[in-house]
Amino acid sequence: MRLAKRLPVWPILRQLRGDDRLGLGEAARSSRSAALQPRTVEADRVARSVCPYCAVGCGQRVFVKDDQVIQIEGDPDSPVSRGRLCPKGAASKSLVTGPLRETKVKYRRPHGTEWEELDLETAMDMIADRVVATREATWQDREGDKLYRRTLGFASLGGATLDNEENYLIKKLFTALGAIQIENQARI
Asked: CA 143, CA 75: separation in Å to the nearest integer?
């Protein structure tokens, strides 16, 4: 392209000739940048979520197309982060879509050396059976004239990225099971 043709499209000349003296609007726009669209324009729906990394609980918007996550961005409506994410939170799409992400339940038997895959229902049944068995084996009803009605056989450590309702339900569940060692990462 000859200099005579390229000169009028230079941003500095558009900036000096037009009303955009600071070069923050039309003067800075090229034909390429004018044709760009956000990565999220093709999304079918947007789900709200919370960043999984730390205890801050920054809001995220998860953009989905054809049941696949295509982008994760900060949620501007979040009172915690107001649309901002740290580098780890901004890269959380790779946590969800990375090729090394485990998507099946893995189980290694006691003293085993290999992992085996289980279906989710079997794994949930195994957990429930173990909770009930531990509760029965470690239940303390009375000791002398003191009434306890508790178990020290298991505990709960909740995550700080859970919302209030989830933490409330976890606390109610473990209290109903008789556990007294119930803590949350946000308080530690």
From this structure: 52
Q: Give the C-alpha distances (Å, rounded to integers) separating 74 from 20, 45, 84, 116.
A: 30, 15, 5, 37
The single-letter code of the amino acid at 67 is D
User: What is the DSSP code string of 79-115?
Assistant: TTTTT---HHHHTHHHHHH-TT---SEEE--TT--S-
Distance CA 30, CA 171 (A): 56
Question: Could you read off the pLDDT of 105-150 as tens digits, one per residue?
Answer: 999 999 999 999 999 999 999 999 999 999 999 999 888 888 889 9
The reported pLDDT for the residue numbered 34 is: 76
Alpha carbons 141 and 143: distance in angstroms, whole number: 7
Selection from 111, 69, 118 nearest residue 94 by Cα? 69
